Every structure is written in structure tokens, then in C-alpha cells.
Amino acid sequence: MLLVFERLESVNSALQKNSLQFTRAQLLVKAVEENIGQLRDDFSSFWADVSDEAREMDIGAPRVSKRPVQAPRRYDEGSRAHDFNSPEALYRQRFYLVIDTVHALLRTWFLREMWYHMKQVEQFVTGDTDGTYLCEFYKGDLNAAHLQLHHNMLLDIAKQRATSLVTFQDVVDFLSGKAGEPLRVLLPEVVKLLQIAMTIRVTSCSSERYFSCLQRVKTYLRSTLGQARLNHTALLHCHKEQARQVDLNLVANEFIHQTVVRENTFHVEI
């Protein structure tokens, strides 16, 4: 399991970056799929390494249960359970089961059609492709002629301002804030496309239910947690980069000064 989790953890960290490109994200997922798939061919070396470490730690060798597993009598059909002739054969089957399950879930979790669509959006707003696909896809929501015009105007303005638009986030930042307010008025079709794209889910919620940050935060604190505290904790977790920059002494001082009892009990950091 550690072999799989180590690979998935590095990809998870990369996918959670704000500046990630959709094209790069697709390549990352594809690379980890191929890498995990190749683990099937490495079981022999994996078993040898584990056996050597077990001997060094004076751990007894695993055994195969001699008691056969009987199928319930209500099942009249089907073959009887396979009897493994060695521990290596047993764990080889379990090893393959883990690898194949993770490999199949990776293909299910990330919606291929949505990844392709988001890549087309990013490549269009950054000037890498034309808008043929998007104009056809959003023909009922966006004006194709205006979208092409505003797209060309966006690239020209960015070029004049010496601003590099490499990722989807670069375009969002370019049009955000007070500096981008005139551009949002000038380029409404591009803004509408960005708004639509930012509401599209890239993965399915069902696949993230067991490993979502909300579930992990709640489990880490305790199994029962009030909604208000959970909301505050989840907010801190989602914006942990900004939260780490907060001076905890100032927060503690504000908390202490709220009541007289706390002022008499706790020390205020100056």
C-alpha cells in the first residue's frame, strides 16, 4: 500500500496547487497511472525486499491457512475458492488486486471528457488554440463572433502590457481586481467563459468522499463536531497558506481580552 500511496501523495500535492495548468494536470494523472500499472511487474523484487527486511527484524514468515474457505450453501453454482500453495502466491494476488483497483479508480475519478474540455478552455484563453470547439460547444450560451473578438482583444492587451498568459489562473488574475474591472466590461464574452469554466467540476464527488479534506479534518479532531466549529476549521484548512501568516500572539491576545476571567488567568504576549 505504501508503494501506491507514495506515488498518489506526490500527485495530490501537485494537483492542489493554485497555479497548476490543466494540461500539466492531465499529464500528471496519466504519468501516475502508467507508473502504478508498471508496479505489477515489480512484485518479485518487492517480495524479496520485504522478506529480507522481515528476516532482519526477526519477524516470522507468513503462512497460508490450511483451512479451506467454504462457500455458503445457498450458492449452488460457481467454483470453490482457490487454494494458494505458498504465501508468495497469496500476497501476489492481493498485490495485484490493490494495483488494479487503484489503476481502475484513477480512470474513473478523473472525468476524461471534462479534462479535455477544460484543457480546450485553458488553451483557448491563453492563445494556444482557436475557439472552434468552444464556439460549437457553447453556441447557445456565448456569441461566437464576440467571443473570438474579445479573445483576440484580450491577447493584444496582455501583449501590450507585457503580461504573460500561460495558465488559466493567469487569465483570471489578469481580469481580477480593480485593475481588471475595465477589462471585464470590455470583454464580457471572455469573462462569461471564465465564469462557466470555474463552476465545472473536474472530478466526481463520490470518488473524493472518503479522502476529502473535510472528512480528514473532522476525523483528525474528533468524530462528533459542531457545524460552526467544523466550518471554521475547514475554512482554515482551505486557506492554510494565509492562515500560517497570521500572528498567533495577536489572535491569543484578542481572545484573552474578550473577558475579564481570561485576562486574570492567561498571560498576554506584548
UniProtKB/TrEMBL annotation:
Coiled coil: none annotated. This is Zinc finger MYM-type protein 1-like. GO terms for molecular function: protein dimerization activity. Pfam families: Dimer_Tnp_hAT. Residues 184-237 form the HAT C-terminal dimerisation domain. PANTHER family: 52 KDA REPRESSOR OF THE INHIBITOR OF THE PROTEIN KINASE-LIKE PROTEIN-RELATED, HAT C-TERMINAL DIMERISATION DOMAIN-CONTAINING PROTEIN.
